[in-house]
Amino acid sequence: MNETMVCAVGNVATQPVYRETASGPSARFRLAVTSRYWDREKGTWTDGHTNFFTVWANRQLAANAAASLSVGEPVVVQGRLKVRTEPREGQQGRMSADIDAVAIGHDLARGTSAFRRTGRPEQTAPPDRSGPHWETRPGETPAETGSARQRGPEAAMLT
């Protein structure tokens, strides 16, 4: 459980790519995170270095991200950071940083968003395990209900 959890605030840099895989839906996009700092000499905010992350989303988060995100939109991404180095011939290995997303949302400090709940995937209905109907009818006392139910449903209708 020694995972590095991060929260990155930035802009969607590439259109999300959605794929159906054998293990379920998956989506990925690039996230640009630019630091900003106050430049005392100029008296203005200045952009610093930009870091790029590949954000991976799975299952329902993948479908929702693909349907909701567009290039340039400000987002907040929370997830597990994974840094890896890919060896190259005759060169120093290329490093990349991925975020395995747990949550993705629009950055409401920089705009508004309209939330729409998605339907859950179709599931088979559970078997009917409802017990007897224990409510009393208007004008009935609990004692009358119990005795009528002991005689069967036809007797309950007649009383």
From TrEMBL:
Work out whether the entry's keyword set contains DNA-binding. yes
Chain positions covered by the region annotation Disordered: 110-159
Top-rank taxon of the source lineage equals Bacteria
Q: Which UniProt keywords are given for this protein, alphabetically ordered?
A: DNA-binding
What span is annotated as the signal peptide, if there is one? Answer: none
What Gene Ontology molecular function terms does this protein carry?
DNA binding
CDD domains for the chain: SSB_OBF
Task: Describe its partners and assembly state.
Answer: Homotetramer.
Q: What is this protein called?
A: Single-stranded DNA-binding protein
Q: Which species expresses this protein natively?
A: Streptomyces prasinosporus
